[in-house]
Design goal:
By secondary structure, this protein is α/β, with parallel strands linked by helices. It has helices at residues 44-51, 87-97, 102-115, 130-142, 160-175, 211-217, 223-238, 271-287, 289-309, 347-356, 368-376, 390-400, 406-411, 423-447, 473-503, 506-512, 517-546, 555-579, 583-600, 612-618, 624-636, 643-670; strands at 3-15, 18-29, 33-37, 59-64, 72-75, 148-152, 180-184, 196-201, 204-209, 317-323, 360-364, 382-386, 415-418. It is found in: Membrane.
């Protein structure tokens, strides 16, 4: 009888002690149903993956009448369906992957819906029961009328009547349609309807023959007894149980020249497959309302929270005041004049009045010890101490200058004790107290007819070349925040979508249908490009329009830089997706890379302030040079002719290329985008 599939000397292992196929030989006659039976872990799924071309044999030859992937219909053990698509959309998607026309897809859809008793074609898959979803999965293997059908547990969980109906259809396909069918099943007695039975255990085929012939040969009443008998014989022959019994089997070396693949595709990129992927991605996003809200709402929430929570000066900070020259405390200041050259009145009141307008709460204490104790108990951030003859000593110091006595110099000092455990608050208060004192002295000099500038430090700050006179941390960090967000939002989306498809077996099934990694990446990139453009626009509006961060640069160059950063993050997401087999692993990689990129890219602190070693390598990170380029574009208005700007663009492009090359390398090492 003519063979539809022949496997000779098949060896496959994943590690030294994990040899899955051990010299397996298999022959599937043309136009027959071949029932492949065996316990879990015996190598059935690996064998099927080798047949459909998703896994390469280490040694061995697979010869099949099916020459291209469209000649094979494959139903994996898992349902492997896009839950947000309708039945009709699912059929159209897989039909286009197999190169069918829309009229052919429509005709086959009608036939399969009737045959498998499927619900209405417009039903969304996630609304179907488990059995209905499994029938849809089975229909996808039949939709393009393939020569070779490979079905992994197609009837699990189905109604017995429907199971029998499916078997009758398979028998009809084999006899009338001359189709070859390989089927695995847990229902051993159900497999008696197959023309040929292959019993597999421990990576080898124990025997293959017609079901009745097997029972006659081994004098058994059913196939289960046959399998048990053969398993005992194999066990007794090897002398040991478990996988370790095969460690002594000679494992041939890999041939230097690869054998041609059993199935070939139709090129690296096919327009019909690409468009099917693109339309599917659009439906996937449009139906996932929660995901769309998350993708478009997260940038708004992040940028808004950042602007409201970060970079603003703290308010309501308590400062203890001990004014020994005021007999009745700060209450004396109420009735004293705020202007005029009254050097005989308490000058401490004028200074206190000057700093009241700086969001400082003044808390009066009678004794210096009490004030310092308040700082120690975290009731105040500092204590101001005016000596008992402060105003008299200060007047003498101003009037006599070099002739002032040492006592006058000492008593005219304003003593301040600060809590500097919080650098930002401590430095801000210190600056407010010093600048407030300078303003207070200028007012006194002006009121007394002396030159006000004589009270200033002899340093004059002119209008800044870039930025404002009073820069804020929020303006410093805004470019970095946008760059980091534009890098990580596409990363999160890419990892989420790709791992969902990978872990659900959808990606594997699509690639068996002929989809290439290039088509997957390009189709996803097109959709992601639209999303990241919207995300970038929303963040720019929030940062530079709503919250008015400084923007003096070229809008077009800034937009291009942000898009490049988004593409870089997306490519990093592809790399994480092909490396990771679980969402936990991907989360660890994504979260683990987030903090180093934020802390070393100049977002939280200037790179000039980092350790020498970090400073020497920090610029290599994907977000470092683009962050400086973003600052140069938005705050300085520089163009592409400046090295800071074009270095940011070059860095983004180089990282995109690096991530793509590494992704391709990992795919090649792991032999495709697939979960173990």
């Amino acid at each position: 009888m003519e063979s539809a599939l022949t496997i000779t000397g098949a060896f496959k292992r994943y590690s030294t002690n994990n040899v899955v196929l051990k010299g397996l030989n298999m022959n599937v006659p043309f136009g027959t149903i071949y029932g492949l039976l065996g316990p879990s872990g015996c190598g059935k799924t690996t064998l099927l993956n080798c047949i459909v071309g998703r896994v390469e044999l280490d040694v061995g030859i697979i010869v099949t009448r099916a020459k291209v992937k469209a000649d094979v219909g494959y139903m994996p053990q898992d349902v492997a369906l896009y839950s947000v698509l309708s039945i009709e959309e699912t059929f159209k998607y897989y039909g286009r992957l197999y190169g069918m026309t829309f009229s052919e897809i429509e005709r086959r859809t009608e036939q399969l819906v009737k045959l498998l008793d499927l619900p209405s074609e417009d039903r969304i898959l996630e609304t179907l029961s488990g059995g209905q979803q499994r029938r849809v999965s089975f229909a996808l293997a039949l939709i393009h009328d393939p020569q070779l059908l490979i079905l992994d547990e197609p009837t699990v969980g189905l109604d017995p009547v429907l199971r029998q109906s499916i078997w009758e259809h398979l028998l009809k396909l084999a006899s009338n349609g001359k189709k070859t069918i390989i089927i695995t099943t847990h229902y051993i007695e159900e497999a008696r309807q197959a023309h040929i039975i292959g019993l597999m255990r421990g990576g080898v085929l124990l025997c293959e023959d017609a079901p009745t012939q097997l029972m006659l040969t081994h004098n058994c009443d059913n196939l289960e007894q046959v399998f048990l008998q053969l398993s005992h014989k194999q066990h007794n022959a090897d002398g040991e149980e478990d996988q370790t019994e095969y460690k002594s089997i000679p494992y041939p070396e890999k041939p230097k020249h690869k054998s041609p693949p059993s199935l070939s595709g139709e090129g690296w990129f096919l327009w019909s497959r690409f468009m099917a992927q693109l339309i599917k991605n659009w439906y996937f996003m449009w139906r996932n309302k929660a995901m769309m809200i998350f993708l478009l709402g997260l940038p708004l929430v992040q940028c808004t929270l950042y602007n409201l929570a970060i970079g603003h000066d703290p308010e309501g900070l308590n400062i203890a005041v001990v004014a020994e020259e005021l007999t009745n405390g700060l209450g004396e200041c109420v009735n004293l004049p705020k202007t005029g050259c009254f050097l005989n009145l308490p000058l401490s009141c004028r200074y206190i009045d000057k700093i009241r307008g700086r969001a400082i709460n003044l808390v009066e204490y009678n004794k210096l010890e009490d004030g310092r104790a308040a700082v120690g108990l975290n009731k105040a951030w500092g204590v101001l101490h005016f000596a008992h003859n402060y105003s008299i000593a200060l007047a003498e110091r101003i009037n006599l200058t070099a002739d002032a006595s040492d006592l006058a110099v000492e008593l005219s000092q304003l003593n301040v004790w600060m809590d500097m455990s919080n650098q930002y608050i401590g430095n801000m208060l210190r600056e407010d107290l010093i600048s407030g004192y300078a303003d207070f002295l200028q007012d006194v000099f002006k009121d007394c007819g002396w030159p006000p500038h004589a009270a200033n430090i002899p340093v004059r700050f002119e209008d800044p070349v870039y930025g404002s006179r009073n820069p804020s941390f929020i303006h410093f960090a805004s470019p970095a925040v946008i760059v980091v967000f534009m890098f990580y939002l596409p990363l999160m989306f890419t990892v989420g979508v790709m791992l969902y498809e990978k872990m659900a077996g959808i990606l594997e099934r699509c690639m068996v249908a002929g989809v290439t990694a290039l088509e997957v990446v390009v189709a996803h990139s097109v959709v992601q490009f639209v999303v990241l453009c919207i995300q970038g626009m929303l963040m720019m509006i929030i940062m530079y329009q709503v919250f008015d961060s400084p923007f003096v640069g070229n809008f077009f160059l800034t937009s291009v830089l942000l898009i490049l950063q988004g593409l870089s993050g997306m490519c990093f997401g592809f790399l994480i997706s092909v490396i990771s087999d679980t969402m936990n692993t991907a989360s660890f990689m994504g979260i683990g890379s987030f903090f180093p990129l934020c802390s070393m890219s100049g977002m939280l602190w200037p790179q000039e302030g980092m350790h020498t070693i970090l400073k020497s390598i920090g610029w290599l990170l994907p977000t470092s040079l683009p962050t400086e380029a973003m600052r140069a574009l938005t705050a300085r208005g520089w163009g592409m002719d400046h090295k800071t700007v074009y270095k940011g663009f070059i860095s983004s492009c180089v990282w995109i290329l690096f991530f793509c090359v590494m992704t391709r390398f990992v795919i090649k090492i792991r032999k495709g985008l697939r979960a173990k």
